[in-house]
Design a protein that fits this description.
The chain has about 200 residues and is mainly beta. The longest helix has 11 residues, at about 15-25. The protein is built from two helices and eleven strands. The strands form three sheets. Strands 3, 5, 6, 9 and 11 form a five-stranded antiparallel β-sheet that branches. Strands 4-10-7-8 form a four-stranded antiparallel β-sheet, with no helix packed on it. A two-stranded antiparallel sheet has the order 1-2. It has helices spanning about 15-25, 175-180, and strands at about 5, 15, 50-60, 65-70, 75-85, 95, 120-125, 135, 140-145, 155-160, 185-195. A hairpin with a 6-residue loop joins strand 5 and strand 6 (about 95). It folds into two domains: about 1-35, no CATH class; about 50-195, Jelly Rolls.
Length: about 200
């Protein structure tokens, strides 16, 4: 006598006799030769699984942090951030989230765009670290494609930073004392990259 079996929800074969008894007992019949819809993944759907992902700390003690990620036109990024940075006398001043606090836009900020709040998590795409005042608001969450409006370059390295007002207005550098001594804390940042196909 031949033994018949079926696959239930993509798992191991179950003898039909046992399945029939189970279904009769429960009053429900659910058979499927493929995984349930909630288990299926469509790899062509954007954002389903990133090609790269990493978690880094962005300290409030420096204007920019190199993420180590090079991005190209058409790449999609999803950035999430959390944590607290402090600014003020000896790094014990007011705490801020990645969304920042207060009005930015002055020449002394890392990103000089007036739409970017002071003390926020900011980003820039550039060939190398630059103090040109360009960049964009990341905040607690940012999703988008490269090139990113406001960045130094259409492709390049992804930098994240703390939009503190300690840059020299001639953009030749920054007051390292103001960053390293007066600031403390860091934002934890998760970056997911979906590469252009």
């Amino acid at each position: 006598m031949k033994r018949l079996a079926c696959v239930v929800d993509g798992r191991s074969p179950v003898p039909l006799r046992a399945l029939a008894m189970l279904c009769a007992w429960s009053g429900v019949i659910l058979l499927s030769a493929a995984p349930a819809a909630s288990q299926a993944q469509n790899p062509s759907q954007p954002g389903t699984r990133p090609d790269e992902s990493l978690i880094i700390n962005v300290p409030a003690t420096a204007p920019w942090t190199d993420t180590g990620v090079t991005v190209r036109a058409g790449d999609r990024l999803e950035i999430r951030a959390w944590g607290t940075a402090r600014f003020g006398d000896d790094g014990v001043g007011r705490g801020v989230t990645p969304n920042g606090l207060g009005r930015g836009g002055e020449c002394s900020f890392v990103v000089t765009d007036s739409r970017v709040p002071a003390h926020a998590l900011v980003g820039n795409v550039a060939p190398q670290i630059t103090f040109d005042g360009l960049g964009f608001l990341v905040g607690a969450r940012w999703n988008g494609a490269v090139p990113v409006a406001g960045s130094t370059a259409p492709e390049g390295r992804l930098f994240l930073g703390f939009n503190h007002g300690a840059m020299l207005c001639d953009r030749s550098g920054y007051d390292s004392w103001a960053f390293r001594i007066n600031n403390s804390g860091a934002f934890t940042v998760e970056i997911a990259i979906l590469r252009r196909r």
